[in-house]
Amino acid sequence: MPPASDDSSAPDVGELTPPTRTLMGPGPSDVHPRVLRAMSTPLVGHLDPSFIEIMNDVQELLRYAFQTDNQWTIPVSGTGSASMEAAIGNVVEPGDTMLVPTNGYFGGRMASMARRAGGEVVEVDAPWGEPLDPATVSDALAEHDPDVFGFVHAETSTGVRQPNVPELTAAAHDHDALVITDTVTSLGGVELRVDEWDIDVAYSGPQKCLSCPPGASPLTLSDEAMEKVLSREEPSRSWYLDLSLLEGYWGDERAYHHTAPITNVYSIREALRLVAEEGIENRWARHRRLAGALKAGAEGMGLEMNPDDEYWLPSLNAVRVPEGIDDGEVCDELLERYDLEIAGGLGDLAGEIFRIGCMGYSASPENVTLLIAALADVLDDFGADVDPDGGVAACREALR
């Protein structure tokens, strides 16, 4: 062994010892032990024949999770925002018009990315905490005749699930607009049928309902969407996320483009294997049942949900903050007292809601029961008008 350094300027950094948390916020969620083990698998090269087989597996499994036959289905090297930017930055060309929603934080991010891609952005209005209305979308499509229409299927900032997706996509296609859908908080946890609902492009993140560390993010494109990408008059403004170049790596050629995050591809493969073993419809049902118990517990202690039941989002529960309570103080106390993570609101709902995830491996009876008991305990100590016993009883009854 080489001698220890006596360089007094070397930083003295201890071992990595982060706390063990229960992650019930808007993401990431707890990672399944099998996924963690997969990440310790020895590395191979990103063009190794064995890794090519792994790439094939991941693509097949992603098609199952998305419920699509799209050939062009890949994990983008990066977080969910990378797959989002790959979708918008490739499909939206300079001069294109993109219609985007105003009903949440991530609709605003769609608009920002479309502008950076050179697109002209027009908005379809809906209040934060409500879904888009198909009639309003149809009117906006008729008025603006956009090239691309984007919407968020599961809005992480408001806890709203967009219903009536086929109506939205049909209206967009009547105007020859391609549809881009944000499925970051729905893939693997909430009913999503890309082909049946006629979605052209869907992007997601692995760290939510798939319970996988961020780093390889799902993306799928229809043949029509990919044809637009490959026929662009000028290339995407991002070399790294240029799908016409990535096509050479994830398509039939398997030609070098960049060094893939090999460990992250291992992890998403295992996470998607867990989805397939459980069965996608069983997984949707599990999330709805356990989030239903969480919702029952919150309401049982006297709290209100932010969205109406009709568009409640099981994977991300938006619970109204009781009057006189500071949401940040509650989140801090849950972390300090219980090692339990939830989050406050964003944007227009900052300070008004708690955002409580019920996703993937975190969606378990034990975690839901802990969350309700801990939240009731902390709110009661802070002087909120809640019924802790009623919340726990309602939660347990819903879990029977």
Automatic annotation (TrEMBL):
Keyword match Transferase: yes
GO terms for biological process, alphabetical: glycine biosynthetic process, by transamination of glyoxylate
A molecular-function term among this protein's GO annotations: alanine-glyoxylate transaminase activity
CDD domains linked: AGAT_like
Listed InterPro entries: Aminotrans_V_dom, PyrdxlP-dep_Trfase, PyrdxlP-dep_Trfase_major, PyrdxlP-dep_Trfase_small, SP_NH2Trfase/AEP_transaminase
Cofactor(s) for this UniProt protein: pyridoxal 5'-phosphate
TM stretches of this protein: none
Domain of life, source organism: Archaea
A Pfam family recorded for this sequence: Aminotran_5
Record's keyword terms, sorted: Aminotransferase, Pyridoxal phosphate, Transferase
PANTHER family, alphabetized: ALANINE--GLYOXYLATE AMINOTRANSFERASE, AMINOTRANSFERASE CLASS V
Name of the featured protein: Alanine--glyoxylate aminotransferase family protein
Organism per entry: Natronosalvus rutilus
